[in-house]
Amino acid sequence: MSTSSGSGRQQQTYFPRWTLKTSGVIMPEERLSWGQTIVSGLQHCVAMSGSTIIAPLLMGFDPNVAVLFSGIGTLIFFVIVAGRVPSYLGSSFAFIAVVIAATGYAGQGPNPNLSVALGGIVGAGVLYGVIALIVMWLGVGWVERLLPPAVTGAVVAAIGLNLAPVAVKAVSAGTFDTWIGLATVLIIGVVAVAAPGLWRRLPIILGAIGGYLLYLLIANGLGFGKPIDFTQLSAAPWLGMPSFTTPTFQADAIFLIAPVAIILVAENLGHIKAVGAMTGRSLDAYLGRALFADSLATIVAACGGGTGVTTYAENIGVMAATKVYSTLLFAFAAIVSILLGFSPKFGALILSIPGPVIGGLSIVLFGLIAAMAGRIWVENKVDFANPANLITVAVALTAGAGDLTLKFGAFTIGGIGTATFGAIILYQILTSPLARRAE
């Protein structure tokens, strides 16, 4: 009850009055010491950096611009949700296939039709914003009907399982890569379980550092693997302006890319539910704001040459591992990302992290996301003796893990979208009055 009353007092101001707490579970309206906040915020920067940089590379975007706008987008999100929903906004993988299709990108170097892709992403952001306004207008009651715990858990698990092949592929290029990835996983686990005090809250960043140094020792030092090439890192300047690009609006590209907004809504719904489950409180009151913030951040990013953004599963994984949900971490991480966006040296450093190390980090983070579904089902006492729950979850997990793709003309829905919409629709059918009457 004290938590609820405290939350009520917090509502008297737009932003929370973050209270200091240095141990146990740190809730969104609480904060660590400033030193711990800085270090934990850096951990979130590390968690988002791999995917936030890989996604633009696959589409021919500038990684530094993507990092910069991920920080700007996260601050936009932070302000619109009043600092009450812990989330980081990074590059969305949902745009990759449609951007490549719309621009004819060959897969190497800068995308020559980048501005056309940006116009389509702006269109997706606008459509996303319209959906968000509808959610804000109609309220969140319909969300509860569409996303009961059985469905929510299935969506969260599908997200983690869908990303699993990406992590496994990153550590499967050879025996050496596999062992480096597994060693990184072990370092993360040991830190999370056995490290003293503050260090136990930093398993991801320490795992990244440990894996990097181990790879450097064995590959560069002993010659048992492909050495890290520091040529680009040495040549890159510390400070420099990112290469901004403005959008060009072409109808065919907009119609091809804009429907991705539906997938972003599905992803954001799953992430908000996951964070709500971890913190033990419903965040549905901020759902409309969260969707609108994500849409606005996507529009802003695309107007300057950045990728479309989404709330990041990787950072949800960090929260699951550390039990630190303070929203101040994300404000700090956003500021750091903005500064790093103006540092080509940072981009070169991130690109020097060996793939097996990134793979090891991903194995842990994606696995934590999938495992969070179990908590949702247990805490909400989901009855798997009920065929509607059992079949819905079974189908969603298979569709997500197998990346079941549906194509509607030029528009493609990948495994996460298929699992999400499939779970929602299937559950409604199986629990409809017609189904109950047949029962």
**Strand segment count:** 6
Q: Largest beta sheet: what is the strand line-up?
A: 1-2
Indicate the proportion of strand residues.
under 5%
Number of helices: 20
The rough form would be described as globular
Given as residue ranges, the uncertain stretches (5+ residues, pLDDT < 50) are 1-11
For the CA atoms, what is the radius of gyration? 21 Å
Number of domains: 1
What is the terminal separation in angstroms?
A: 41 Å
Q: How is the main sheet built?
A: 2 strands, parallel
Secondary-structure element order, as H and E? Answer: HEEHHEHHHHHHHHHHEHHHHHEEHH
Helix-and-strand structural type? mainly alpha
- The helicity comes to 55-70%
Mean pLDDT across all residues, rounded? 85
Q: Which SSEs are present, and which pair or pack?
A:
Elements: H1 2-10, E1 19-20, E2 30-31, H2 34-59, H3 63-80, E3 89-91, H4 96-103, H5 114-138, H6 141-146, H7 149-170, H8 175-194, H9 203-221, H10 231-235, H11 251-257, H12 260-279, H13 287-304, E4 309-311, H14 313-322, H15 328-341, H16 344-351, H17 355-379, H18 387-401, E5 406-408, E6 411-413, H19 415-430, H20 433-438
Parallel strand pairs: 1-2
Antiparallel strand pairs: 3-4, 5-6
Helix pairs in contact: 2-3, 2-9, 2-15, 3-13, 3-15, 4-5, 4-11, 5-11, 5-12, 5-13, 7-12, 7-17, 7-18, 7-19, 8-9, 8-17, 9-17, 12-13, 12-14, 12-19, 14-17, 18-19
